[in-house]
Amino acid sequence: MREQLFAGLCLCSTGLEPPVMEQVRKIVLACGGVFMDDFDTSKATHLIAEAVGSLKHRTAVAHDLPVASPRWVFESFRAQKLLDVKDFSLRVLEGLVVCTAGLPMEEKESVAALATTHGAQYESRLESGFTNVLIAQRPEGAKYEAAVANDIPVVHVAWLYACLERQILADEEEFVLRPESESDKMQPTHIAAKLRQDAQELVADLPQIVKRYRRSQREENAELESQSTGADEEDSDDDWIDLFDGCVLYLLGFSPQMKTVLQRLIRTGMGTIYDNMVVRQVTHVLVKRDWRMIATSYS
């Protein structure tokens, strides 16, 4: 019965337009539920929102409370039964307005595509009162200065990949860009440079890595078969190993230099790289923040 549809539930909202909030309130109260204006985590069972990032939203996520679109209330009312709230959950970046500064064109296009796919709106112009976060290459430039002046978080692109990896809105403070003089900590751009150097060193070591891998495989086979395979790894000219055999990878968000390094690593491991995202054929999508996963596989 509709009169008891939301019985036992206590809902609160954040960021809704007044007409939408009032409609949600009326339905919840008419169907036996409780609607609160103030968010009390000891009483609330659900948060209704159309965008992520508000204080109420972050608090709800921290307390593992379901966050759903107003559509959950409306569609449940129409169906005369409580629908699964998971079907109305917000996307990771739902409702955010994202801007970039100083990124290479390829990376900027990748960021725009990822942000849009996961619920954000991408805008090339920074606008106070509209832009929610600025993704920048370095803590400098007109956009950076304008963002700081208007209390808009300025983060490294790793923030975006962290959001997608964790499937929640990552804390901007963890990836904030500040002038080096204000912090003794290593900036994300310096971290990226160090990781790129590590990758290049790994590529230089590939011949020896392949030999060690082959030797290890030969020893395992010899132990299983109780006899030597008779192959001399030192005399082999092959420069491949089968770590990624059968894998079809799509690289996303990497600079041309890093992409070249990764292509060498993946192809040495007998993996296949696609330039376009073909959902039915690609088995793995590798995004910028996780490239060390491949390097670790070779260790």
TrEMBL record:
Keywords, in A-Z order: Repeat
GO biological process: DNA replication initiation; mitotic DNA replication checkpoint signaling; mitotic G2 DNA damage checkpoint signaling
Tagged with keyword Disulfide bond: no
Region described as Disordered: 217-237
Record bears the keyword Repeat: yes
Domain called BRCT: residue spans: 1-90, 88-177, 239-299
InterPro entries: BRCT2_TopBP1-like (IPR059215), BRCT_dom (IPR001357)
Top-level division of the source organism's lineage: Eukaryota
A Pfam family the protein falls into: PTCB-BRCT
PANTHER family in UniProt: DNA REPLICATION REGULATOR DPB11-RELATED, DNA TOPOISOMERASE 2-BINDING PROTEIN 1
Protein name according to UniProt: BRCT domain-containing protein
Source organism of the structure: Phytophthora boehmeriae
